[in-house]
């Protein structure tokens, strides 16, 4: 039985571990051809090997999404290997400062906005011609529950994730004219390397768990189903929306 993404080609950035890896795996399990990417060749090789051992149709490429030449190569190689691009999942992000927001160094501020926001915008902008060739497309931005309820010690990171919600709303009507949809996923507190600073501190973890009605942290796999839904025709009448995957944590702008 063909999966719901059979015939689709997807790019997932920062997809060699954590949420990105889980999304790449799920899209491939559901029938898509997937281009895996991250900044380190070794990580790309390991991820591709693991997924190919599951008989999934994936390839991999090193890509620093803040570099135009890397983004161009990512698109060109995906088209060369798979014939086109139907789905873009922009997952790459960084948090380069932990502490009071007003103490954030300027270079950390710039790095976070450059990677977390500008790169997502440029990826969306630059992939449009390839999606137009296919007649349609789906873009998925990975935001965060911190977009709704900023976390004090990662204030600028939280701000960049709020900006992605705005980018989603801004681009939705413009992309609709090209028959391209864009939506967000806002994960809650997910068990990944990225959240280690929180999850390995017992006091901080207990405080976090007290805010989650389901009483536990999420897993990367629990974010992947939302991505597959947004990539598929099951969500054909959805654009400009955000799916919050947070175990019940409340989020409201």
From TrEMBL:
InterPro entries attached to this UniProt entry: NAD(P)-bd_dom_sf, SDR_fam
UniProt-listed Pfam families: adh_short_C2
TM region(s), chain numbering: none
Superkingdom in the source lineage: Eukaryota
Family: Belongs to the short-chain dehydrogenases/reductases (SDR) family.
Protein name as catalogued: Dehydrogenase/reductase SDR family member 4 isoform X1
Organism of origin: Aplysia californica
